[in-house]
């Protein structure tokens, strides 16, 4: 009882970024002496800032200290003479042990009478090993002291952060302005006919990367609505390529039942696979920087929407083992065909009718208000115009020509064939999905080699 009365709980909070930088500056001489390196002040600041941004399962200053420690170790291991000294030491010890074993085998017949002699020999061998290790360690220390210290800069820190956080190296650098500046332009060069949708997506991502969004939420949560085959999945794929991150895709038609929805966060206790974690949480832990594509979200079980509410609100999801997946560096994209029939419906009379209101009403009937309100944007994808379909044909033909280059075959397509492919390869209900099959039947089938 007295212990509880006399003791007091003291909460030690995580230091701020500025305080963590000061801590690293205080520890800097020790790590420089140990690794025989020199840290630039910019490297220390970068270690704190990037570890705070990309390493979420640990706290400052511990994770920043590990970063500079790893950087120093990697820099030192890059020096070849240290490796040669270690190999020479191991070779000497191996020879000593071999000589000792040979001597023991030679005296095995008189082991009873010469037991004391053998023990003395073994003691001498152990002493020789210890002395050799001490001499080798002293030699390594003196060799390290003679070498000039190597400098560790921002690039070295970024490489270590990429390794520890399991993210693409080009995603670590805080200077991604060039990618974001031309994001909408680059996407429009790769996906045709959806300029308005791409502009909305790019603006939302730029807003998030500018630091004007809540830091505890995903980079963005978007719903792509529109007919099939108009570029929703392709935009997601090309976005991941341009940002240099992984595309993690889930077909939500596989999670229509309650027991299948539970696989996303893992099986409940007592069920098979409980210790394996969830499919979604494990993927995010493996790829904390990614584009998460949830195809045909309207087919998912209601339990899936409850999970997504937590993700879009707090940027985290806990599996049934208690492990937390962090979604703060994830772009969430959900595709849906809800309302696509109203958009694809032909207009009556001589004027083009706007069916966007019908599409909005269809989305409201399927998705609850609390779910829609947590989305950053519902981006509408429209049916493709005839001129756009021709551009899609050209894209497929360019991809085919790349395949034929290996066979030293040149593909020549006249305008009539291009118009034929555009007419037959696009369907108002199916979009451009039939295009690939048409090119395979009409063109690829002629090369049976």
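Q: What amino acid sequence fits the structure above?
A:
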């Amino acid at each position: 009882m007295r212990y509880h009365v006399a003791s007091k709980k003291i909460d030690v909070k995580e230091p701020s970024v500025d305080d963590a930088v000061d801590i690293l500056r205080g520890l800097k001489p020790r790590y420089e002496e140990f690794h025989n390196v020199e840290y630039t002040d910019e490297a220390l600041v970068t270690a704190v800032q990037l570890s705070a941004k990309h390493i979420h399962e640990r706290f400052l200053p511990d994770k920043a200290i590990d970063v500079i420690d790893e950087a120093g170790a990697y820099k030192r291991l890059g020096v070849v003479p240290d490796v040669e000294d270690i190999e020479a030491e191991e070779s000497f010890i191996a020879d000593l042990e071999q000589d000792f074993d040979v001597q023991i085998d030679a005296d095995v017949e008189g082991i009873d009478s010469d037991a004391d002699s053998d023990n003395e020999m073994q003691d001498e061998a152990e002493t020789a090993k210890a002395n050799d290790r001490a001499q080798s360690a002293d030699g390594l220390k003196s060799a390290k002291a003679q070498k000039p210290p190597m400098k560790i800069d921002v690039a070295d820190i970024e490489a270590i952060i990429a390794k520890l956080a399991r993210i693409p190296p080009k995603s670590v650098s805080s200077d991604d302005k060039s990618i974001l500046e031309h994001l909408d332009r680059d996407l429009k060069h790769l996906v045709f006919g959806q300029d308005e949708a791409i502009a909305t997506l790019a603006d939302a991502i730029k807003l998030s990367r500018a630091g004007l969004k809540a830091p505890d939420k995903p980079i963005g949560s978007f719903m792509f609505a529109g007919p099939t085959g108009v570029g929703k999945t392709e935009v997601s794929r090309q976005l991941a390529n341009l940002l240099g991150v992984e595309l993690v895709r889930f077909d939500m038609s596989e999670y229509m039942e309650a027991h299948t929805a539970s696989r996303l966060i893992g099986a409940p206790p007592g069920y098979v696979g409980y210790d394996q974690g969830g499919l979604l949480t494990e993927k995010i832990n493996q790829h904390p920087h990614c584009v998460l594509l949830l195809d045909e979200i309207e087919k998912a079980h209601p339990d899936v929407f409850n999970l997504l509410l937590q993700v879009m609100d707090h940027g985290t999801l806990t599996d049934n083992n208690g492990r937390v997946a962090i979604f703060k560096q994830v772009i969430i994209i959900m595709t849906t065909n809800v309302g696509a029939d109203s958009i694809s419906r032909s207009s009556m009379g001589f004027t083009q009718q706007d069916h966007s209101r019908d599409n909005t009403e269809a989305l409201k009937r399927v998705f609850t208000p609390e779910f829609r309100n947590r989305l950053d944007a519902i981006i509408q994808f429209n049916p493709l115009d005839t001129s756009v379909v021709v551009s899609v044909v050209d894209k497929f033909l360019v991809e085919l020509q790349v395949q034929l280059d290996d066979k030293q075959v040149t593909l020549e397509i006249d305008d009539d064939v291009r118009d034929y492919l555009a007419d037959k390869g696009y369907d108002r209900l199916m979009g451009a999905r039939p295009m690939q099959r048409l090119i395979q039947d009409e063109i690829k089938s002629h090369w049976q080699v």
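Q: And what stands out in the fold?
A: The mean pLDDT is 78.
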